[in-house]
Amino acid sequence: MLRSGGWAAVSRPHVVDAGLMVSAVVITALTLREPAYVPAGLAVAAPALLVRRARPALVAAITMGADLAAMSALVAEGAAAPLLVGAAATIALYSLGRHGERVWLTGTALTVGYVTVVMMVDPVNLVGKVMQILAAVLLGRLLLLRHRLLERRKRRAAETAVSTERRRIARELHDVVGHHITVINVLVGAGRTTMASDRAAAEEAFVTAEHTARQAMAEMRQLLHVLRADDTAEPTDHTGIGAAGVPALVEQARLPAELDVIGKAVPLPAAVDHAVYRIVQEALTNVRKHAPAARARVRLSYLPGSVEVEVTDEGTGTPVRSRGGFGLRGMAERVALVEGVLTAGPRSEGGFRVHATLPLAMPERRPDVDHSAPRG
C-alpha cells in the first residue's frame, strides 16, 4: 500500500507540467487528424514538456523541430499547414522565456531556424507564427522578471525587519543597562567616598546599589520575555513599564529632581506608554553622566490627543550631548515609531532640554501582503 508520504516527491510543478503535456496531446489530436502519423509524431514530442523547467532550450528545440516536421509532412501530403505554432511548441517557448538563462541567444537561434523552414514550406502564415513565437517567449520573460522583482522586495523586507529588530533590542539594552549601571556607579562612588566619614550613609548607598542591580535584572528578564515571545505576535517595545513608573524613576534618579504632571492622566497606547518611560529614563541618565550636580525637572503633560514629555537640567549643554549619542538616537527612533516629534539640545539659559510630543492615536499597521508570483 502506498503511504501518504509517498506523494511528497510529487510537487505542484510536476503536476502542472503533466497537465500541460496531456493538454498539448489532446489539442494536437483534436486539431490535426489526417494524416494520422502527424498528430502521432507531435504527441511523441509532448512528453519533453515534463522537463521544460530544467531544460527549456532543449525542450523548445525538440517541440519546434517536431512542429516543423509535422508542417512539412502536411504540405507534402497536400494538406493545409496549421495557422499557428503547435501547442507543445508554444508551451516550450513560454518556458524558454520563463526559465531559460540565455533566452535571447537560444530564442533567436530557434526562431531563425524555424522561420527559415516556414518561409520554404508555409510562407503565407509566416507573420502570424513569428508573432506567436515572440509573444510566448516575451510572456515567459515578463513573468520571470516580475518574479525576480518580488523576490528582491521580499529579501529587502526581510532585511529591513531584521534591522528593525536589532535596533529595537539595542534600544532596550541601552536603556536598561545604561540607566542602571550609571545609577550603580554613582551609588558605589558615593559609598566609597563617604565610607570613612559616614558609614551609615555609605551602607545606605550600597544597599540602594544592590536594589538597583536587582531592578536591572528584573527589567532584563522582562525584556527577554518579550524577545522570546511567540513569533506570530506583532513585535512590540512594551515590557510592562510605562508612564506610571515615572514618579519612581524620578525619585530613584539620585539627582536633585522634581516631577510636574499637568492634566489628568489617561490610559496610553502601549508603545507611547513605554516611550514616555524610556525617554525620561534616558534623559535622567544623561543628566547624571554629563551634569551630575545639576537640578533636573521632568514635566509630563496630558493634552487632548497627545502627551508631552520634557526633561530639563541646569547643567552645561556639553558638546558631547549636543551632538547626540546612541541614547538620543534611540529616543528619536522611539518617538518616530509612534509618529511623534522629538527635540533635544542645549538651552540658551544653560543646561539641556529634551522634549517629545507623542500622539495618542497610534498609526495603523498595514497587513503584510502575499506577493507570491505564479510558478508556471
UniProtKB/TrEMBL annotation:
Source organism per UniProt: Microbispora bryophytorum
Annotated PANTHER family: NITRATE/NITRITE SENSOR PROTEIN NARX-RELATED (PTHR24421), NITRATE_NITRITE SENSOR PROTEIN NARQ (PTHR24421:SF10)
Gene Ontology molecular functions: ATP binding; phosphorelay sensor kinase activity; protein dimerization activity
Domain of life according to the entry: Bacteria
E.C. number(s) listed in UniProt: 2.7.13.3
UniProt protein name: histidine kinase
Keywords of the record: ATP-binding, Kinase, Membrane, Nucleotide-binding, Phosphoprotein, Transferase, Transmembrane, Transmembrane helix, Two-component regulatory system
Record-linked SUPFAM superfamilies: ATPase domain of HSP90 chaperone/DNA topoisomerase II/histidine kinase (SSF55874)
Domain (Histidine kinase/HSP90-like ATPase): residue spans on this chain: 271-362
Pfam name, any one: HisKA_3
Cellular component terms per the entry's GO annotation: membrane
Catalysed reaction, written as an equation: ATP + protein L-histidine = ADP + protein N-phospho-L-histidine
Transmembrane annotation, as ranges: 20-45, 80-96, 103-121, 127-145
InterPro entries reported for this sequence: HATPase_C_sf (IPR036890), HATPase_dom (IPR003594), Sensor_HK_TwoCompSys (IPR050482), Sig_transdc_His_kin_sub3_dim/P (IPR011712)
